[in-house]
Amino acid sequence: MAAVLEDTENVKRVAELLAEGATRKIVADTFGIKDLDTITRWKRDPRVKAKVRRLIDDRAVDVSRKVDSTIEGRLQHAHDLSIKELIEIRKEYGGTKLANKEVDDDALATQALELLERDPELLDKLTALIEEQEQAKEPDGHPEGAAS
């Protein structure tokens, strides 16, 4: 049943169901699968995981935008807010949340695979770039012209 995930539309649909909180049984019934372990394997598939992560991230961004918009509107009348409310807002939006973006390895790997599928010569280009960078280093491991 791995063939089901070879179709990108099926990967998308599986991810949508999982992101919506569908059970393995619901996903299995949707695709006519009898073995629930197949759904467990699908949930671990990097393509599905990346799409689920993207869907959840998109939802989180949508919610954040709505909340931010509401807060921004209320801050137009900051004089109506208590000091405690203003301090809480400042703590929440102090910049640290924006600076701590996590990298999703599965999503990154999936994006790389998708790019390689579109441009099979990309791997050769990347290899050449890495070799070029390595050759630009002096024997001591520092780039040419860099102070030791």
**Count of strand segments:** 0
The run of helices and strands is HHHHHHHH
Sheet having the most strands: none
The rounded distance between the terminal residues' Cα atoms is: 57 Å
Instruction: Report the principal-axis shape.
Output: flat
Number of helices: 8
Mean pLDDT, nearest integer? 81
Structural key phrases:
mainly alpha; single chain; flat
Detailed description of the structure:
The protein is mainly α and 148 residues long. Helix 1 (8-19) packs across helix 4 and helix 2 (24-31) crosses helix 3. 68% of the residues lie in helices and 0% in strands. The chain starts with 7 loop residues before the first helix and ends in a 13-residue tail after the last helix. It has a domain at 2-99. The mean pLDDT is 81. The radius of gyration is 23 Å and the shape is flat.
